[in-house]
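User: Before I run my own analysis I want an independent prediction to cross-check against. Here's the chain; please return only the structure tokens and, at the end, one sentence I can use as a sanity check.
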Amino acid sequence: MKKGIMNIIIIILLVTNIALSAVIVFAVVPAMNSANTLVKKVAEAIDLQKEASKDSGSVSIEDMENYTIENKITANLKNGSDGKTHYVVVKVVLVLDKSDEGYGKYYSKGKLAENEEFIKGKVIDILSSYSNDNITENKTAILNQIRDELQEFFNQTKFINSVSFSEFIIS
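Assistant: Structure tokens:
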């Protein structure tokens, strides 16, 4: 009699073990896979941020030089939700990387000063594609777009490390 009860208990435990294993396989594993996918996406985003910071922010302070565009730049903005005409006035500062080969090629030979009007035109083109409703939220994107277009103009050199506005007035 004891053997029969022990066999029944063992069979019940075995069936319970198989049932719980099935629950784990069909319920927990897919949830773990989706969590794993999420972690992978976050890790990729962090890697992209790290690579982007290597491209534009890894210049030592000794190798930086500020170049301020002489005059303020005024640009008309797209009509916003209020339907009125607005404009923005900015003073642009380029942060140059003195250790980049483009610095000697373009800045020290005066090419940057010669192309100031072109730079102003690029800034106006980019600023005028925004309205007074969204220009403030997109300030970082605007600065990055200006930097990227100027780097492209100067033959893909990275001597223009970043761009900033020393004045930024919207009216």
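Sanity check: The radius of gyration is 30 Å.
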